[in-house]
Amino acid sequence: xxxxxxxxxxxxxxxxxxxxxxxxxxxxxxxxxxxxxxxxxxxxxxxxxxxxxxxxxxxxxxxxxxxxxxxxxxxxxxxxxxxxxxxxxxxxxxxxxxxxxxxxxxxxxxxxxxxxxxxxxxxxxxxxxxxxxxxxxxxxxxxxxxxxxxxxxxxxxxxxxxxxxxxxxxxxxxxxxxxxxxxxxxxxxxxxxxxxxxxxxxxxxxxxxxxxxxxxxxxxxxxxxxxxxxxxxxxxxxxxxxx
Length: 243
What we know:
6 helices, three-stranded antiparallel sheet, elongated, five-stranded mixed sheet
């Protein structure tokens, strides 16, 4: 059955007239099409169908859809990825702030933000990948000053390569450089001061010049200062051996 009365509509059985979005660039209004856009009489005529809704069994079932009476689930337009058939709650594309912590594999959102912000100043287009489980991956990049994520289930499964989600991921990463290894290395650098056992992160470790002897090997000169506890006590070689 035809529900949309817009002239030339290709899918009139999936939405009502009010659910039809104009395809003219710069318009994007609902309730008319391209032909009506340029013809006032046609546009006025079609307004008489704006009150019509779909039969109950065809209503969109996407959670919190404000226009469920005017289109089917299959034609629901996701505001995040711009694809059809799902909503933002189940979209593989999300803002980092909206990602569940368990997908971050014990990394904090602030660690991710700090790293990508710092690296983006040097290299505009970078991304990192976090393995949230054995075969699931979360890809993160900075786009338009926001950190956007793309979650792919069964990333290493060969049949995943033929899915729409995987093809979307390729477009998501196009032009961006993988900085995952550097991110992991940076975050995992936590050293315990041999003098007081204070945990020092990478940002708390500073190179210095000193005539004192390394307290670990008792041979090399002190080259490292732990800023958190203010102890200058080890050389670079022994720093690598600390846990």
